[in-house]
Amino acid sequence: MRDLETRRAIYTKAALFLVAGAGAATLVVLESPTVKTGLLLAIAVWSFCRFYYFAFYVIEHYVDDSYRFSGLWSFARYFLKRPPKR
To answer: What gap in Å lies between CA 4 and CA 52, rounded to an integer?
Structure first.
């Protein structure tokens, strides 16, 4: 699969992710409309966002500036193959 190159396609993809995420979160909260469910869902979303930021930005800018990740599978391969530096 080739990379998206047009600005319109990139924005469309982002909008679809936003709609899918908001729709899924809404359905989860409607399935169990409690404060606990809402808070746990918010914490899960926030945590996964921070992990994604860590996997791409932090590793590339602070740990190993020579490696470029192409996705989460690329990050997993990198993480499992490289021995920790001491």
So the answer is: 20
How far is residue 76's CA from residue 49's CA, in Å, rounded to a whole number?
16
Model-level pTM?
0.68
45, 53 in Cβ contact below 8 A?
Answer: no
**pLDDT digits 0-9 by tens, 39-61:** 999 999 999 999 888 888 888 88
Q: What is the largest CA-CA distance in the chain?
A: 48
- Alpha-carbon distance of 25 to 38, in angstroms, equals 9
CB distance 55 to 75 below 8 Å:
yes
Instruction: Annotate 20-72 with DSSP letters as a single string.
Output: HHHHHHHHHHHHS-SHHHHHHHHHHHHHHHHHHHIIIIIIIIII-TT----SH
Spans of all domains in the chain: 1-33, 48-86
